[in-house]
Amino acid sequence: MYNVAIVGATGNVGKKFLEILEERNFPLENLYLFASKRSAGSKVTFKGKEIVIEDTIEENIKDKKIDFALFSAGGDVSLKFAPVFASYGATVIDNSSAFRMDKDVPLIVPEVNPEDIKWHKGIIANPNCSTIQAMVPLKALLSKYGIKRIVFSTYQAVSGAGKQGIDDLIEGNKGAEPKKFPYPIAGNCLPHIDVFLDNGYTKEEIKMIEETKKILHNNNLKITATAVRVPVLNSHSESINVELENPYEIEDIFKLFNETKGITVYDDLKELKYPTALMASGKDDVFVGRIRRDFSIANGLNLWVVSDNIRKGAALNAIQIAELLTGSDD
Ligand code: A2P
């Protein structure tokens, strides 16, 4: 049995950690909840018991013998406190981008690169939400056919921008001015997620490109991305255009995805079956549909990939990483 801490327990992803720990059979001894000073002292009910939220300070961390610390309180909190938790013996699973590209920190999607867990040194990074859902079908394609090039176009929900992102959509629908986004998200699409970089990409787009190479262990992949925030509450949708190295038959792609753990193929055009954000919300799997040949190039393939960005894209993936370490994964 393990002692688990959640850092950022009052946030969007933090609450989802609690929900998923309630649902799954995680071998939990004690659960400790941390947030900012603002929330310290407030109480949360977990499995019928009240847990008091604590301020994230070393004094509150050091004597708890924490085995796993699940972080989702932003990059600055991770940079400051992940090493503190690790120094007291915890394995940190960090949902921020702070450590993802650190060469000493594995970046893991359990269905894709579980072997990387072996070389962690106390901190493991959870990939970006839009990266995680893309990795599950792409790893299957890479293993069977090889991949030359990937074009990501994302349609990302406001829940990925935390409580403030959700408020901007809900209040914006009633006519309020945005507080989180630079323009209204209600009735709008913003090709702008995270900050702009000197090369004209956003940091979100570069995260998708670089994290994909790290997770798939392939620096030669050619990848480009456009990441767009859309007025959807939850679940990210992605158009993924892939150029495979080897020829394929479309029936074999359906078969491959049907056999891949973590994927639900949802693709029957006669029945108007294709994945949507509403149907994927609250589910664990990555939904793949609109599977079709890209006729404009040799070995081209188009996919529509939808997943709950707060579950598989964040909290669930982090808990699955902890389960890899406890051996309680199925
Ligand atoms: P709090 O509610 O006390 O501000 P979201 O991504 O949904 O906006 O949530 C952010 C999470 O990070 C919240 O749980 C928030 O706690 C937490 N947080 C913000 N700043 C700090 C901090 N300085 N130390 C610890 N937790 C923090």
Automatic annotation (TrEMBL):
Signal peptide span: none
Residues involved in substrate binding: Q156, R229
Catalytic activity: L-aspartate 4-semialdehyde + phosphate + NADP(+) = 4-phospho-L-aspartate + NADPH + H(+)
Domain Semialdehyde dehydrogenase NAD-binding as annotated: residue spans: 3-120
Residues that hold phosphate according to the record: R100
Residue runs in coiled coils: none
Residues the record marks as active site: C129 (acyl-thioester intermediate), H236 (proton acceptor)
Pathway recorded for this protein: Amino-acid biosynthesis; L-methionine biosynthesis via de novo pathway; L-homoserine from L-aspartate: step 2/3; Amino-acid biosynthesis; L-threonine biosynthesis; L-threonine from L-aspartate: step 2/5; Amino-acid biosynthesis; L-lysine biosynthesis via DAP pathway; (S)-tetrahydrodipicolinate from L-aspartate: step 2/4
UniProt binding sites for NADP(+): T10, G11, N12, V13, R38, S39, S159, G160, N309
SUPFAM superfamilies (UniProt xref): Glyceraldehyde-3-phosphate dehydrogenase-like, C-terminal domain (SSF55347), NAD(P)-binding Rossmann-fold domains (SSF51735)
Biological process, per Gene Ontology: 'de novo' L-methionine biosynthetic process; diaminopimelate biosynthetic process; isoleucine biosynthetic process; lysine biosynthetic process via diaminopimelate; threonine biosynthetic process
Gene3D superfamilies per the UniProt record, alphabetical: Dihydrodipicolinate Reductase, domain 2, NAD(P)-binding Rossmann-like Domain
Function: Catalyzes the NADPH-dependent formation of L-aspartate-semialdehyde (L-ASA) by the reductive dephosphorylation of L-aspartyl-4-phosphate.
Record-stated family: Belongs to the aspartate-semialdehyde dehydrogenase family.
PANTHER family in the cross-refs: ASPARTATE-SEMIALDEHYDE DEHYDROGENASE, DEHYDROGENASE, PUTATIVE-RELATED
Subunit comment: Homodimer.
Protein name in UniProt: Aspartate-semialdehyde dehydrogenase
Species name: Clostridium sartagoforme
Gene (name only): asd
